[in-house]
Amino acid sequence: MRDMSTGVLALLGSGETAPGMTKIHRQLLKRLDEVRAVNLDTAYGFQENVPQMTEKLLDYFQTSLHTSVEPLHFTSFERSDELERTIFKQQVRHATYLFAGPGSPSYALAQWRPLDLGPDLRHVLEAGGTLCFSSAATATVGAFCAPIYEIYKVGAAPYWIEGLDLMAAFGLNCVVIPHYDNREGRDYDTSRCYLGERRLALMELELPPGVATLGVDEHTALVLDLKAETLSVLGKSHGYWRLDGSVRVLENGSTTPLDELRSIEAGARAVEDVVIDAPASLPRDLARCVLEGGPRAVEALAQLVQLSATGGEGFIDPTALVDGVLAARVSARASGQYQLADELRDSLVKAGIDVQDTPEGTTWSLRATI
Question: How far apart are CA 32 and CA 29, in angstroms?
């Protein structure tokens, strides 16, 4: 039997102050016998508009939910003293409704981890409280966390950092990806919290065995209930449980026993159950073949490359596909798998792509066709 019994963890993909999410906040607040609501500003603590951001959030709760929220200010571990840290941790433990939202997940973790905030957040759950995390804060609750700004904005090679691992309280070993269905890029892939499907798939290969990915669509909430041992999907869209290339869609309006997610083993689902959220212009059958691997993968990749060269219906930009194969090749060489690295290079050559290794790195180009 689990130590924690009545707490709730609500994971919002985005839209924490949007009109459509008000009903969800109201449901979460209604379950509490006593509402002691607080807002943590840490995730956006690096921004110049911290006071304005906090005021906007507090105004939303007061106006839309008639709930007073106490602002808890903690934007820098280094610039705080021991007394400030102790007071902040005590205030967190006293809360029954704790909200943390937009900003940078890596910045938030850089302040919370040396503070050892994880046990304080778990205490809120143990006491029957509610943790409501949205957007950037949502990304921090898994065993590992994707540093979104560093990868998407700065251009760092994809990597993971240690997360708060609050999901372990529910017996789930996973990372969490908000903004899962983001489409801001329009003509390029900004889904999977701006990482894109290609980069997320590569990053998942670097996770320890058995670590799953929990995706949360925008304007959607995944509500994990310790007492009921369930995960419910509320709001606009869906959730996703990914493991070893397989994806289980957690449908909007559904409630899933946590034991069902805990019992899913790597490779347990059939290929037909895999969801591929490729751009609309990318032929689904060819994309499926490439992602599955196997003897037809090179042929499928070649066809996609030719579509990019010839245009017409199904025209696509092959950059994401080729960069993905090259990234896998770099990883293979770094780990001493030279035969695999050669096979990956050969697959690109067979697909009509010239690969050039130079002292400055690897470049590629489409082979001219007659």
Answer: 6
Torsion, Cα 14 18 23 26, to 10 degrees, reads 90
Structure tokens at 192: 């999977």
> Which pLDDT score is estimated for 217?
96
Give the model's pLDDT for residue 24. 97
Please state the φ and ψ torsions of residue 114, each to the nearest 5 degrees. Answer: -65, -20
Which phi-psi region, left, alpha or beta, contains residue 244 (left: φ > 0; alpha: ψ -120 to 50)? left
User: What are the residue ranges of helices labelled H in the chain?
Assistant: 22-30, 50-65, 82-94, 105-115, 118-126, 148, 196-204, 258-263, 284-292, 297-310, 319-334, 338-350
Strands (E) in 167-237, as ranges, are 174-177, 212-216, 220-225, 230-235
Q: Are 97 and 29 in contact (CB under 8 A)?
A: yes
The single-letter code of the amino acid at 318 is P
Residues of the chain with pLDDT below 50 are: 1-4, 267-283, 309-315, 369-370
Instruction: Look up the pTM and report it.
Output: 0.73
Domain limits of the chain? 8-273, 284-366
pLDDT value of residue 320: 64
Tokens of 133: 């995390």
Q: Which amino acid is at 189?
A: D
Q: What is the pLDDT of residue 265?
A: 65
Q: Which fold has domain 8-273?
A: Rossmann fold (3.40.50)
* SS3 of 25-82: HHHHHHCCCCCCEEEECHHHCCCCCHHHHHHHHHHHHHHHHCCCEEEECCCCCCCCCH
> CA triplet 142, 145, 146: central angle to 5 degrees?
145
